[in-house]
Structure formats: structure tokens, C-alpha cells
Amino acid sequence: MFLDTLADHCRNQPDKVALQFIGAQPVTYGELAAAVNRTADYLLALGIQPGDRVAVQLPKCLPFIYFHLAAVQIGAIFLPLNPAYPSAELRYFLADSGARLFVADAADQSRIDPITDDLPEHRVTISIDKPHDSGANWLKDWPARRDYPLPSDPDQTAMMLYTSGTTSRPKGAQITHGNLTANIASLHEAWGWRLDDVLLHVLPVFHVHGLVVALHGALHAGATAILCPTFDAGTALDLLCSGRFSVFMGVPTMHRRLYQLAAGRRFDLSHLRLMTSGSDRLPDDLFFGYQDTFKVTLLERYGMTETGMNLSNPLHGERRVGAVGLPLPGVSARIVDPDTEQPLPDGQIGEVQINGPHVFKDYWRQPEKTADAFSADGWLRTGDMGLREPDGYYTLKGRAKDLIITGGLNVYPPEVELVLMEHPAVAACAVIGCPDDEWGEQVVAAIIPRDGAAANEADICAFCREGLAAYKVPRRVVFVEELPANALGKIQKAKLREEMCG
Ligand code: MLC
Question: What is the CATH number of the domain that holds 472?
Fold first, then answer.
């Protein structure tokens, strides 16, 4: 399993650098193993048991990684939380997951105490002071036993990642040890990860992309990951040009910023053996612009929180513009009629469904939502529309579900609409995504104001910021007299997009 391979690397190459944050001391595989073991022992001393949820809301830093690996090592369920979540969202995640332990940034202490006050399953909060300053010496005085039996049951949950829904509050997708192991093995085969790879890691670590695809990818290979705490295009371009890196992964917004920064100048990045794009559709102009500017053909792949990675353009062979590639080893994909769920012939657009050992176990404490997520014969309904070419390549063609992707992050309009409806000046509203060059899409709200109520865009946005992470807050608010609705009164979002996106 994934943890066994990592343990082997820690034993076999203790002096090799595993991780290094830019500007900080490196952490070798030996030091990583020791720091994770101390953290695991610390968690056990706190009374954390297998199956307990360990929620961590920290910036991208070494303690985040130590808690992550330690929690999964002792059989607990790791729950990463975006530091951008405001109190209302944070409280929901802690309550719904029944987190026993909550690890937070000490800088947030005053905000956190009232949140965890009356959560029945919560036991302990740990505040980490200046988490960015911690290095390989983390918990250095904590006596740790050396060897822990690693979880051996592939069905045991390793982590829980929240995803939103079109009709409900966010759901915790349970990802098992078997899921992680299967996905990382197929990515290694497909992308040819190597011991001498050096990854430039610029992604956030609280999502599948940054945590599993990128970080686990490098650690599973016994390679080196150099991490930036946040993405800055200038820093990233300088580093990419240094010749030190062989692998880079980004979302289209990051690639767009790098491309725009080049502003017509040419940079030869062809020494990187793998540059991938994912989490949102890669626009064609960016695919070609990258070839021209950086001498790189981006490798686009397709995944989701519930599965990790599903499809990928090949490492060797044609990386087809506009396509998300072929099923990864061990992954089955099909295109079905969304109404009958019957498989469709090549070339016809239908829903993409996925099957394989990487598909998540279930939604935490939500058996009905879990049942809804799967077809009668057990395939995962992705909610993405697409087609299969006769030569096996898949292309995505929009979404069956009401979802906005902005900067590689998913925003479900209903969660924004729910918050908007709490504003006293809002009588009705609809939230849509409008195309945007930098972000892919941007969140736009159409609002019918209540009679006589005074509200303006700034007001509405400020209100949203209290209940929603900043990336979900509408970038544009338009006040309208009516919203396009069908005969049943359901708002027609496609029509609204035509009217408002211009
Ligand atoms: C930040 N902002 C966003 C945003 N990210 N708004 C919309 N969408 C986003 N994704 C807000 C900030 O809060 C700020 O708002 C304003 O935009 C400008 O911030 P910025 O400093 O320019 O943004 P930055 O911090 O640089 O972030 C941009 C980004 C980041 C692209 C680096 O969004 C990012 O890291 N995205 C990657 C997301 C990711 O890893 N997704 C993978 C999901 S897994 P204000 O109002 O405060 O000024 C998945 C499965 C799969 O999807 O297949 O991979």
C-alpha cells in the first residue's frame, strides 16, 4: 500500500531529501519518517483511535504534512480543511464529520474557540504557533516508538474530503487506503514517476490534486518535492527556468498566469519531463500558447475528489488538444445516456461514468447520497458530460450538474444561493458561472430585490464573505426584475447565462 512504499523509501534512502519548502531547511526521508512517527505517537497519546476524524486547518506547511501522514498511519481519518473557510463553513465541517481532534493555526484561536464549544464529538483542539516555522525538528522532544504496524485493510478509510452537492450541504467522501494505493500505482505507471524526479509543488494541499496526485506522487516515487506555500507566477517561472525540476502540476489558472507573465517572450522548459494540467478544462489557446512559449506540451488529465485520477493524456504518444485522454491503468470509463444509463456508441455525448478500485467508499453518514452517486450496476456517476472517440480518447462536453469551476475550485451555486437568500434585501436569486479568461469561470449572482429594500453589490458581497470562503463570493451581482423560469417555475440557468454572461 501507499504507506508501505513510503516506509520502504524512508528505510532505504534516509539521507535523500523528501521535502523542502522554498527558503527553508530540507527534510530527508529519514527525518520525515521520524517526524511522522513522533506525530503519530502524539496523536495516540491524545487518545486518537483508528477511525477517529482528525481535522486539520493549517496553511501549506510541514506540520500539515506530518499530521496527514501520522493520522493515516495510525488508522485515523484525515480531514483537510481549506484555511479560507470562514467560521460558518468550518463549524459545519467539524460538526458533520464529528471530528475528535481539530488542528488549527494559533493565529485563528479566537475565532475557533466558540466554534468548537458545543460540538458533541469534538474532544481536543491543538493550536500550532507559526506553523511555517516548523521543520524537521518538529516535536523533537516527543519520545516516539520507532515502528508502527501500518493499516493493512484496504477498505479502511484514510481520509475524508468534502465535496459540495447540487441539492445538499457538502458531503464527506471517504477515501480508503485501497483507493489511494490503486490510484497512485496507476499514476506512477502512466506518468513514469522516477526516483530522480524533482517536483515543483505549488498547489494547495487540502485537495486531491495537491495532496494525492502531487505530494503522494512524489513520495511514492521516493522523489523530491520542493514546495511553495502559495502560488506566485513570478517565483514559479524563475524556479521552472532554473533547470532543477523535472515535474510540475498546475490548474489552468496557474498555467494562464505563467503564460501571461511570459508576455510574448520565449522560455525553454522542455527539460521538464512532465507538466500536467487538471482540475478544470484546459483552454485550447493555452495548450498551443504553452507549446509556443515554453516548448512544452501540457499533459491534461481528468479526475475528481471521489476518485482521484481517472483519465489522462499519455506520457508518450499524442497529447490531444481539448481531450482528457485515455483511462488510466486499472480504471474503466464509459459514456451513458443520462436518462437510461445505457452505454452510448463512440462519438455520442452522454454522462461519463467511472469504475475501478480507486472509486471512493461512500459519503460519510449519507447512505442515500451514496446510493444516488452510483448507477444500478455500480458505476460512479460523475455528473460530467463527454464523448469517447473511436481511438479511445475522451473529451468532456460540459456538465450535467449545476457546478461552477473557478481557478480549479468547485463552487456549487446552491450553496451560494442559500447564503444570498438569508440577506434581508434578497427576494429571489440565481447563481451562475460566466466564462472568464483567467479563472475559467467566475461566480455571478442575479438577484431580485425585495420590494423597498435597499441593497447594493458591495453590501451583498460583504454579507456573502461572512458565510462563504472568498472564492465562492460572487464577483458580479446583477439586480434584475425577473429570472427566466420554465412552466414549472424552475429557473433556467442556461437562459440566464446567455443573458448575463455577454
Ligand atoms: C483565490 N480567489 C479565488 C480563487 N482563488 N477566486 C475564485 N476562484 C479561485 N480559485 C480569490 C482570493 O480569495 C482573492 O479574493 C482573489 O481571488 C485574488 O486572489 P489571488 O491572490 O489572485 O489568488 P491566489 O491566492 O493567487 O489563488 C489563485 C490560485 C488558487 C489559482 C493559485 O485559486 C489555487 O491554488 N487554485 C487551485 C485549486 C486546486 O488545487 N484545485 C484542485 C481541486 S481537486 P479577495 O476578494 O479576497 O481579494 C480537483 C480534482 C482534480 O478538482 O481533478 O484535480
Answer: 3.30.300.30
**Cβ atoms within 10 Å, residue 155:** 10
Dihedral sign from CA coordinates of 462, 468, 470, 475: negative
User: Is 256 in contact with 286 (CB distance < 8 Å)?
Assistant: yes
Last residue of a domain, one of 152, 175, 205: 152
Q: Give SS3 for 27.
A: strand
Q: Which of 123-132, 412-421, 480-489 has the lowest mean pLDDT?
A: 480-489
For ligand 1, is residue 307 a contact (CB within 6 Å)?
no
pLDDT number for residue 148: 72
Question: Is 140 domain-assigned?
Answer: yes
Last residue in a domain, options 129, 152, 175 = 152
Domain that holds residue 445: 404-500
Q: Say if ligand 1 is within 6 A of residue 278 CB.
A: yes
State how far the Cα of 228 lies from the Cα of 244, in Å rounded to an integer: 15
Å from CA of 8 to ligand 1 middle:
35
Domains of the chain: total: 2
Ligand 1 pocket test, pick from 175, 200, 231 with the greatest ligand atom count within 8 Å of Cβ, gives 231
CB-based burial of residue 490 (10 Å sphere; 0-12 exposed, 13-18 middle, 19+ buried)?
exposed
| Within-domain flag for 256 | no
What's the pLDDT score for residue 145?
A: 72
- Helix spans in 173-296 (H): 177-191, 208, 217-221, 233-241, 252-262, 284-294
Task: For ligand 1, say whether the CB of 469 is within 6 Å of any of its atoms.
Answer: no
Probe target for ligand 1 pocket from 409, 436, 466, with the most ligand atoms within 8 Å of CB: 409
Mean pLDDT of the chain: 95
Residue 339 placed within a domain: no
Atom of ligand 1 nearest to the CA of 251: 37
Let me know if 90 is exposed, middle or buried by CB neighbors in 10 A (0-12, 13-18, 19+). buried
Q: What is the pLDDT of residues 250-293, one digit of tens each?
A: 999 999 999 999 999 999 999 999 999 999 999 999 999 999 99
Q: Is residue 185 part of a domain?
A: no
208 CA distance to ligand 1 middle (Å): 15
162 Cβ closer than 6 Å to some ligand 1 atom: no
Q: Which SS3 state, helix, strand or coil, does residue 89 take?
A: helix
- What CATH number does residue 121 fall under? 3.40.50.980
Give the Å distance between the CA of 490 and the centre of ligand 1: 31
Name the pLDDT band for 63 (thresholds 50, 70, 90).
Answer: very high
Report the C-alpha gap between 422 and 417 in whole angstroms. Answer: 9
Shortest CA distance to 331 belongs to which of 307, 306, 348, 301? Answer: 307
* Ligand 1 close to Cβ of residue 407 (< 6 A): yes
Give, using CA atoms, the residue closest to atom 18 of ligand 1: 471
479 alpha carbon – ligand 1 mean position (Å): 26
